[in-house]
Request: fold
Amino acid sequence: MSGFTSRLLVAGLLLAAPAAGQPSPDAPLTLRAALDQARANSQPFRSAQLASDLAAEDKKQARAALLPSVSGFSQYIYTQANGTPSGVFVPNDGPRVYAMWLNVHGDVFSLSKWAEYRGATAAEAVARAKADVAGRGLVATIVQNYYGLVAAQRKLASAQQGLREAQQFLDITKKQESGGEVAHSDVVKAQIQVSQRTRDAQDAELAALKSRLGLSVLIFHDFRDTFTVADDLQTLAPLLPLEELKSSAVANSPDVKAAEASVQQERLGIDAARGGVLPSVSFDYFYGINANEFATHSAPTPENPSGVNLLGSVAQVQLNVPLWTWGAAQSKMKQAQLRVQAARSDLTLAQRQLQASVSTFHREAEIARDQVASLRESLDLSTESLRLTLLRYQAGEVSVLEVVDAQTTLIQARNAYDDGLVRYRVALAALQTLTGTL
Reply:
């Protein structure tokens, strides 16, 4: 996906959002601000980021294991004297032995350590991809809850407007009754409608509170129940072509990236297992003292008036050849091969699921987008129908039941229109999650 089209899809979800930052207490919370808050406070997302950071440190440690290391060593050995040069314990060089040296150790050839380093690199890629997956899932959850709250606020406003309309109609019926134009039963029916609309408004207020608290738990580190969110549902973002979204999904999907990194990681596991049956070569270099005196030169003797040098170096090379492991190394290789097969199966499944999901959500977004215009038309028609029905009722041409039906139809049309807008936004967010274009 080109940079312009990627930004265009992201703009559809973040159209009304200003630059990220801590919103003022009275300002409506934008989607961008909600996402920033969620990333900072979401425990699952932070756990995924922590796993990625830990994997990066594992890679550093595996790389360090390939490089020569330097260590210091100090030792003092006391052996009980018995009149002999070695003392009681004959392997020792004397009653007192001082050792202090620096050791440089390195592996000249170790296939298993190279495989461990490359495996740690692949594991870091897997962890990063999984953190990306967690981030995309967090985005989808926040978008759904955010616009769910927007819809709940709209439905609350619609319920309150429906209550006002029912109260206005009650006033009309009372006036009509006082003029002898309608029966008292119309007033009773209008009173019933006011009671019903009052209950609807209370339920809508409760639903808005629940949606607000549900979003608050996801994005804030403390308890908040008085914030509002910015309503940008009226602005419809463009929907990109299906083939363009599919190509972007294949290139950027965090789920596919995680599966591909897992395959690479398991392949390197075969090399690590193979290293268990191949020789390894390492070297050590020591520089320091290992003598019966703690000095760089020994004390003068008749044989050596100037003493002997006690400070020096020694180098050694080790060749380790595995000869017999009772089949353990071959078993590890077989395990690694089986893990590669399983990882490849997971990758192909992730690719198939990605293609199917992109097609599904794209079609859902198309339907939701096309239905928005129809729902808007139904809302306009319902508004006009109520106006005309009220006029006809005042003229004595229709019954009170037709007015009540027109009021109910208008409320349903408002809610359906709001649900249609939310459905389109959520479908776009799902596509964004799949294509990794955040």
